[in-house]
Amino acid sequence: MSSLARGVFIVIEGLDRSGKSTQVARLVDRIQSATTDASSSGSTPRAVPLKFPDRTTAIGKMIDAYLRSESDLDDHAIHLLFSANRWELAPKIEALLASGTTIVADRYAFSGIAFSAQKSPHLNLTFEWCKAPEIGLPAPDLTLFLDVKPEIAMQRGGYGEERYEKQEVQTRVRQVFERIGEEIGADRWVVIDAGQDRDKVGDDIWNRVVPVLRDTHKPVTRLWHGQEELR
Questions:
Q1: Distance in angstroms (rounded) separating the CA atoms of residues 65 and 79
Q2: 46 - beta bridge partners?
Q3: What is the pLDDT of residues 80-111, one digit of tens each?
Q4: Which of 71, 87, 190, 216 has CB 3.0 to 4.6 Å from 5, enough for a Cys bridge?
Q5: Which domain holds residue 113?
Q6: What is the spatial distance between Cα 168 and Cα 171, in angstroms, rounded to a whole number?
Q7: Is residue 32 in a domain?
Q8: Burial class (CB in 10 A: 0-12, 13-18, 19+), 94
């Protein structure tokens, strides 16, 4: 594995309890421990995890209270807060990538769109409206969608503790994720069967990540801005 010209931006998405946090931690460790090939300088790739929403910021604390059902907010307002939470971390993402550090994110803009747009049968939260605040964010080099049926996810520990952890909600969210994947395209959006043993899921993820780690000379782009380079 060659030394990084820049960091790689990887996002792991999926329904609640699909194993995202586990696989983010495993992938970061695997990248960190990956050995370099004989032609490299011998440096080890650097990788850090990020989690969205970041509940430690002022905005993140408002989101946390909402998700725990400790407060109520207008659905349009909470969507914009989620987006603002990503924008306040965008400079950090750009700086890490520029420094050669790979980022593995637990959720990103795609979750924000999916969880808000699934409400549209009852509210005027169209797919395009939900997508608009995310346009221009740093775009992932690769998004791995951990696909698990809601009825399987609900059998996992901790399910139901937060606002959106209901089977009917998760089913609608999955449908929006499918639409997002079609828009992003198969070169940057990969579906992983998350119903498998976690070690097999980890191996499937790694096999998809390795080629991306070796291709770090393309510019970082912005979401839904084609190939416009970050400036």
A1: 14
A2: 101
A3: 999 999 999 999 999 999 999 999 999 999 99
A4: 216
A5: 9-213
A6: 5
A7: yes
A8: middle
Residues 220, 223, 226, 230, CA torsion sign: negative
Q: pTM for this structure? A: 0.86
- Following DSSP, what letter does each residue of the chain receive, concatenated? -PPPSS--EEEEEESTTSSHHHHHHHHHHHHHHPPP-TTS-SPPPEEEEEESS-TTSHHHHHHHHHHTTSS---HHHHHHHHHHHHHHHHHHHHHHHHTTEEEEEES-HHHHHHHHHTTTTTSS--HHHHHGGGTTSBPPSEEEEEE--HHHHTTSTTTTSSTT--HHHHHHHHHHHHHHHHHH-TTTEEEEETTS-HHHHHHHHHHHHHHHHT---SPPBBTTSTTPBP-
222 within domain boundaries: no
Which pLDDT belongs to residue 154? 64
How many independent structural domains does the chain possess?
1
Q: Is residue 131 part of a domain?
A: yes
Smallest Cα–Cα separation from 107: which of 177, 191, 14, 7?
14
Place of tokens 């994720």: 177
What confidence tier does 229 reach under pLDDT thresholds 50, 70, 90? very low
Residue 208 located in a structural domain: yes
> Which residue has better confidence, 121 or 141?
141
CATH of the domain at 34: 3.40.50.300
Read off the pLDDT of each residue in 107-127 and give the average, rounded to a whole number. Answer: 88
The residues, ordered by sequence, that sit 6+ positions from 152 with a Cβ below 8 Å of its Cβ are 195
- Residue 32 tokens read as 């960190």
